[in-house]
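Record format v2
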Amino acid sequence: MPKLWNETIEAHRRTVHDAILDATVELVRERGLLAVTMSQIAEKTGIGRATLYKYFPDVETILAAWHGRHVAAHLEQLARAGERGGDAGQRLEAVLETYALIHHQMARHGFGPDLVALLHRPDDVGHAQHRLSAMLRDALADAARAGAVRDDVAPDELAAFCLHALRAGAVLPSQAAVRRLVAVTLAGLRAR
Amino acid sequence: MPKLWNETIEAHRRTVHDAILDATVELVRERGLLAVTMSQIAEKTGIGRATLYKYFPDVETILAAWHGRHVAAHLEQLARAGERGGDAGQRLEAVLETYALIHHQMARHGFGPDLVALLHRPDDVGHAQHRLSAMLRDALADAARAGAVRDDVAPDELAAFCLHALRAGAVLPSQAAVRRLVAVTLAGLRAR
C-alpha cells in the first residue's frame, strides 16, 4: 500500500482510539466507575461493539490508556515549565505551581479519589512517579546550588515533601488558594 | 441473665471480633487483597465459617471494620499529642510529628496504596478526614494567635497543606527523615 494510505489508516485509528478514551471518561463521570459497560462505550463513541473490542479488551484497559495519555501530557507540561527562563529558583517555582494547578484542575474536572485510586496502579505510578521525582529532584538540586533552596535536607526528601504538599491543590477552592499553597511550600523549601 | 454473664459474653464477642480483623489483615498482607476468602479467614481465626458469617457478611466489611478501628486509634493518638504540655506552637509540632510518623509506620507495616485506596471509601474518609482537618485547623488557629504560625493564609488552607505534606512520611526511609519532613513543613507554616 502507498505510504499516504498507511498514514491515513493510522490517523483514522488514532482518531477512533482517542474518541473511545473520551467517551469512556465522560461515561465514568456521568455514571460512576462501576456502572460503565463496553456496550455503552461503543454506543457513545458511535462504533460497533466488535470494532470497540478490536481496540480494547475491557473498560479498565481503556481507562489505563486514558490515564497514560494524561500522565504523558502532564509530564510534558512540567518539563516545559522547568525550561522557561529565569534562574534556578524561578524555574523551580514554575514547576511547583504547574504541578499544584494540574491537581487542582483534575479535581475540578471530577476526577475524584476513587477514579485516581483505580488508575494509579503500582506499575503506572512507579514509572510516572519516578520520572516526576527525578525531574523535581534535579530542579531542587539546581536551586540548592544557586542558594535558592535549603541544603540541609537532601533533594530527594525535599522532592517527596513537594510532591505530597502540592497535591493539596486538589482540595483547594480557587487558583488563588493554590498559589498560596505554592508560596507556603516554597517557604518550607527556603527556610533554614 | 446476671450482668456479669452479659459482660462475659460481650468480652468474648469482642475478642472474636478483633481476632477476625487481625487474621484478615494478616492474610491480606500475605496473599494480596483479591486472593483472600471467608473460608481462609475462618480457618486462620480458628472458628467455623457459620460463626464468621454471624460477625461479618464479607471480606470488604471486615477490612472496613479494621480500618475504622485504626482510624479511631490514630485520631485518639493525635488528640493526645495535641493535649501535651507546652505552648500552642509546641502542641502543633507534636500533632504534626505524630501524623507523619503514623503514615511512616503504616507504610512500613505493608499497608501500600492499593489497600489504603480500597479502604479509603468516600464515606469513611469523609468522616475521619473531617475530624482530622478540624483538629488540625484548631491547632493552627491557636498557633497563629500565639504568633507561632503565619496569619496571612487561612488555617483551613494551612491544614490542607500539612495533611498532604506529612503523608510523604509514608515514602521516607527513616524516622530521622520524617523529622526533617516535619521541620520543613513547620518552616513553611512559620515563614511570612
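Chain B has two domains: 1-57, 58-190.
The first helix of chain B runs from residue 3 to 31.
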